[in-house]
Amino acid sequence: MPAECDRLIYPTVDRFIYDLADGLGQSDEKVDRNRENFLKKIVKEIDKDKFHRSIQKVKTAEEQDKNYIELLGFIDFPSAFDGYYYPVKIGDTYALQMDCSGKNSTKDEKSKPQSILGAIVKIKSIIDEQLHHTEASIGESWTIYGQLAAEDQDVLKTAQNCYHALGLFDTPNWENHLDNEGEFEGIHFYELSHFGGDRGNLKQNRHLLIYLFPYNGGKFILDDPQAKKIPRTLHVQFLRLFQYRNKSIWAYHQSRSLKADMKEAAQTIQILVKALPAKVKSKRVNLKELQNNLADLLTILSIYGNYLSRLEEQKQTIATNLENYKKRLKQIPTAIDREASDRAFDFLETFADYGSEKYLPQIESDLASLSANFRLLENAIKTVEGIVQLEQTKSDRALTGTIAIASSALALSAVTATVVSVKQPKNYRDVAFLKSPEFGFSLAIGSLPIFIAFLCWLFVYIKAVLKNNGQSRP
Prior knowledge:
Methane Monooxygenase Hydroxylase, Chain G, domain 1
């Protein structure tokens, strides 16, 4: 006869899945794809008519100006199974609860103790089979609950058997994965998790909450009105609580990807900035090349600034969700029992503390260090802009001198033409007009601007030579 810690009455498994519905800046086409990918988890895409109707129904539901929207209500699993889907939208996130207690059976059969290993393995396979599109873009959490099969049943060992039977963790180790344990109105809770690490895949994260009802003298929980409503009430609360948890983890992983991209951008910034002094000190500055450098720097500045903004956004996302997580913990006890203390579920607050101590300080540190590159880039741009403006001014001065000389030449031509028109020569060989007082006087007046323009050019040239000689000295 198996030991009682290997058996459980009415073992039930729930899976909570979270997808991004409409991220900041996403196009309408991307939002539509998000909706379709979420609904694929519930409705088989092969049934095109049903799938299209579901999409339209969800789009209509989403038009409501609410933070919590029921999308399709409760949808039963196929008749052979005792389970359902419950899809909702919470803010910018799609959430799906899948609940299953195995194959459909009579109430008497449900009230009999079952093998934990056999039942949970079978239930998990049903859930996996009914989830038609498995990938969750944000994350997921699991729960297992049931009623102890004997008064003196070892609760801890029973919970450990549930943990091993589900097979959620790649390398099972109860001691390493156990985060918290607590008790509320005779129900024992055990929370376990595994984080994939800063550079790990988001899919490597695992989260499981096991809660076991007391034997209660053999009275079946479904026959106890008070006990019967607890799982449903908890699921409504957990649907939000787990969203805050998974959204925080997801945002932190997003911040790690952003940091990696920014480090690559920082290397490009360093290369460009280090190359500037040589170009600036060159005796012959290439204005076109500097203008191209300036365009490159401005482009990188825009991209890098966007990265910083998104990193700040992830920080705010984490801070908001951690705060909401703590608030929700205080609402859970009173949702079950109005007389209960709002601190009854504080044993689950460890995650909020972890996020506040690890996630937020890390991102703040990243923002501080990565912002230094942004300031370096801004200073480099100001320097290049100044040099470009200076070189453009030099070019403008040279152009002005050229125009002055050309204008003087034109004036001289005009003088000649004027004299010739006054003293018309008798024939083309007659140059007597050159000896005329009118021509001499006009020539002197016409040459004066040329002489002044030459002196201006000579002054600018000598000044530039002296400046270059001064800069070349050690």
